[in-house]
Design a protein that fits this description.
α1 (20-31) runs parallel beside α12. This protein has 419 residues and is of the alpha/beta class. The chain starts with 10 loop residues before the first strand and ends in an 18-residue tail after the last helix. The protein is globular, with a radius of gyration of 21 Å. The protein contains twelve helices and 20 strands. It has a domain at 62-91 and 139-204 and 275-360: D-Amino Acid Oxidase, subunit A, domain 2 (D-Amino Acid Oxidase, Chain A, domain 2, 2-Layer Sandwich), CATH 3.30.9. The strands form three sheets. Strands 4, 6, 7, 8, 14, 15, 16, 17 and 18 form a nine-stranded mixed β-sheet that branches. The structure holds flavin-adenine dinucleotide. Flavin-adenine dinucleotide binds at residues 16-22, 39-42, 46-49, 52-55, 57, 229-230, 257-259, 261, 280-282, 315, 356, 358-359, 380, 382-388.
Length: 419
């Protein structure tokens, strides 16, 4: 943080967490004219929001758990190439969550979740374009769409249900044959002959840089940023005392936007939310032109190759774990060969590897809510789509605080759905 302060003044709203979700909340709250303080020990967007695949996935409407997930999941346990991994040493953290995850994907429960996923992702396109314009960072958000490619006919056919759901809800997409796929991405590997192109999706070219620029733009508008870790916060003097490792500060309201770390912060309010970390990884390859032009997902591998400002990024793996456990980099290293099968023109050695915690709920929807009668607002649990949904989340939190009609109905994102 360039202008991070060492002694913050008491504030109207303290926002815990400066990932893309906390920053987006600060943006919209500052626009309401509220005094905001961002608190984070690491600066702007240095955790999960730094290393994602950069897809602003407007057309995505399926949660992670869908009918048949139990059989699919069991199959993945015996497939070394499957993206789902379980960190068995942390089983206490994810076992109950996993049972709930399977339940949420049941036939009787999944349709409202799909509608809620569609609603928030559709609203995210304008929210993203407005945010990027407002901070003069439009060049980092490319209008390239999102490409899903299939290595097997059977997987493409299994996606018929998803395509039907998209058609029924008016999601813009095109099914591509082998030639149309090569017209769009000439460098694609020869085993890929089927694809679905979601043309309304956007592509973030540098998530870390975007967060940094958004944070600096907020500072220029008077938002304070405080590099500290919140140990706890409690109700005091008609507001909240926020105790950090660098002193304490008083606020009238608090937004908890601490991603996978959010749960621990709520313990003084007797609240637990089913948000667990699902670790994902990336590898960075050198910058090279004309290899891949947009985020491209290999559906069977759940692996994405994305062109970024610094080079080409490959992301994959969903490892259920607990905060603080050691990452297992071999899981992503063994995907290097797959990245070169997806785009055989990919050159050069891996330049960097990274891992980060997706903050996941069992139904894949975020938690955007007010905590009872408290002036505490939750903006967390965005899982696999937090980059996509961050700006609209900021808008919805501001809608709640301003007591105005929300941009989309809030009911599906309320915490009480898990009670
Ligand atoms: C490999 C991978 C690929 C992904 N690809 C995509 C994609 O293509 N599209 C998409 O939409 N999403 C994607 N995601 C998901 C997306 O990155 C996340 O959902 C999103 O970044 C979550 O943002 P956040 O602000 O909630 O969390 P974070 O970015 O993790 O921010 C939380 C912040 O809270 C801070 N914090 C924690 N504890 C405290 C404390 N006690 N006091 C103060 N601050 C604290 C942390 O330091 C951190 O900066 C991907 C994720 C991964 C891992």
């Amino acid at each position: 943080m360039t202008d991070a302060i060492t002694t913050p003044r008491n504030t109207d709203i303290a926002i815990i967490g400066s990932g893309i979700v906390g920053l987006s909340c600060a943006f919209h709250l500052q626009q309401l004219g509220r005094d905001c303080l961002l608190i984070d020990p690491h600066g702007f967007g240095r955790e999960t929001s730094y290393g994602n695949a950069g897809s602003i996935s407007i057309g995505n409407l399926l949660p992670q758990s869908t009918p048949g997930i139990m059989g699919k999941g069991l199959g993945m346990m015996f497939d070394a190439d499957a993206p789902l991994k379980l960190d068995y040493g942390a089983w206490r953290n994810w076992f109950g969550w996993l049972l709930r995850f399977v339940r949420e994907g049941g036939k009787g429960r999944v349709m409202p979740i799909i509608d809620a996923m569609h609603a928030i992702n559709t609203a995210s396109r304008d929210a993203w374009l407005d945010l990027a314009e407002a901070i003069d960072a439009r060049e980092l958000v490319a209008d390239t769409g999102y490409l899903h490619v299939y290595g097997q006919e059977s997987t493409f056919e299994a996606g018929a249900w998803e395509r039907q759901l998209m058609s029924e809800r008016g999601v813009s997409y095109q099914v591509l044959d082998a030639q149309q796929l090569r017209d769009l991405e000439p460098g694609i590997g020869e085993q890929f002959t089927r694809a679905v192109f979601q043309d309304q999706s956007l592509a973030m070219r540098d998530p870390g840089q975007f967060c940094q620029r958004l944070g600096e733009a907020l500072e220029a508008c008077g938002v304070q940023s405080f590099r500290a870790a919140v140990a706890q916060f409690r109700a005091e003097q008609g507001g909240y005392r926020i105790v950090t490792d660098h002193g304490s500060v008083q606020a009238k309201a608090v937004v908890v936007a601490a991603g996978a770390w959010s749960n621990a912060l709520l313990r003084d309010f007797n609240t637990r939310i089913p948000v667990i970390p699902a670790r994902g990884y990336h590898l960075m390859y050198p910058k090279q032109a004309d290899v891949v032009h947009r985020p491209t997902l290999w559906a069977e591998r759940y692996m994405v190759l994305s062109p970024m400002v610094q080079g080409i990024r490959m992301t994959s793996i969903k490892e259920l774990t607990a905060i603080g456990r050691d990452p297992h980099y071999h899981l992503i290293q063994r995907r290097d060969a797959d990245a070169r099968r997806l785009f055989p023109g990919l050159q050069g050695e891996v330049r960097a590897e990274w891992s980060g915690y997706r903050p996941c709920t069992p139904d894949s929807l975020p938690i955007i809510d007010r905590l009872g009668e408290h002036e505490i607002y939750l903006a967390t649990g965005h899982g696999h789509l937090g980059l996509t949904q961050a700006p609209i989340t900021g808008r919805l939190v501001a809608d709640m605080m301003a007591a105005r009609e929300p941009a989309i109905p809030l009911a599906p994102y309320r915490r009480a759905r898990f009670d």
